[in-house]
Amino acid sequence: MFLSVFDIFKIGVGPSSSHTMGPMLAAARFLDALRDGSDRVPGAGAPARLEATLHGSLAFTGKGHATDRAVILGLLGFVPDTLDPDEAERRLSALRETGTIDASGIGPLALDPEKGVVFDYGPPLPGHANGMVLRAFDAAGNLYLTETYYSIGGGFVLTERQLKTEAMKGDDAKVDRPHPFATAAEMLAMGGASGLSIAAMKRANEIAGGAGQLDAGLDRLWSVMNACIDRGLATDGTLPGGLAVRRRARAIHQALLAERGNNIAQPHTVNDWLSVYAMAVNEENAAGSQVVTAPTNGAAGVVPAVIRYYRDHCVGATHKGIRDFLLTAAAVGGIIKTNASISGAEVGCQGEVGSAAAMAAAGLCAALGGTNAQVENAAEIALEHHLGMTCDPVKGLVQVPCIERNGLGAIKAVAAASLALRGDGTHVVPLDACIETMRQTGRDMSVKYKETSTGGLAVNLPEC
User: Which of 93, 128, 216, 389 is a plausible cystine mate for 350, CB 3.0–4.6 Å?
Assistant: First the structure.
């Protein structure tokens, strides 16, 4: 299965790629299905009313992730990468007043903004922990169309039929990729045979798939990531959701700037720079701002933080290095998603921050001149030391422990890259074995610790 750099890194909105972006996309696609009408129930009249039901993790943490709001926005025709916040609020306000969506090409559709999105706290749907069912009815109450969607992590969405037929894997049959690696072992073998770096192979694969203006796309990704860091470093206040979590990135950043050049900073202060860059992103994500999935929203701070560290703190950093970083990180992220998961609801936070740390470690190692073997080693070190990490967001919000967790993920990524660069790439545990271990660990992990907020920190803070 080939996953583009623009599949792994997607521009969207917070607070969650699987619980906000995915449901919004699913709802927007349901509108397209209504317009198409080919799957309508025979004999039903024109569509007149909509409803949605959230299952599994989408139900348990949906309020904290604003999943109901995201579904409604999708039914209003919005998608994450082009969402205009002001227009979205205007349309939501109009819906609350009228109870009607005026869908282009369909006509007016009734939707109760308070009761039209149902949270089902029973067992999850069989296909994935993040399942949702969208339905349209005619004026007489007869079912017109129904579709089941699964938000499988990182903003990826599949219908029930696509999930069963593994439709995402059909891409490789259509495009002749020059370096079609699906595992780390294949990646290293193809790199050895071609003499190319991982970034160069990924670039060739992207171009073969018709990725025009690749560098412009990479530059846009970094621009959005960097702008998110800057917004987070400049913004004070309290994050929404009821936990009263104060933003800390701005104050920490100001303190770090004040320490520069006055000989009072400790050597380990570099860790504070890494943490503050990551925290800035995840504070923005928690506020519902624009972020880039890397590979998810909950882990969106790790990769940008390490790129910013590379650009502003590393000797010899170049713009080409940033592009190579993104390409290499995407190659590793694609291998992890293909062979395991990047969904916290499926495998816990090892699949989110753990994957992000592996991607960032690989990217930094490549940008600093590491060999392919060293890059693979860096990714393995970072992922190995996130194995078993649970996803237990307090109150279902992507705030505690998620914001700080991204800072520590960035620190681990840099440490992993540095360790790998000190060696020659030989090591005991291959990246593929580590990825398979992560998959098995996630399979065996109690559902309490997989983004349901029914275990861990989420139940051990009495005030929550």
Answer: 389
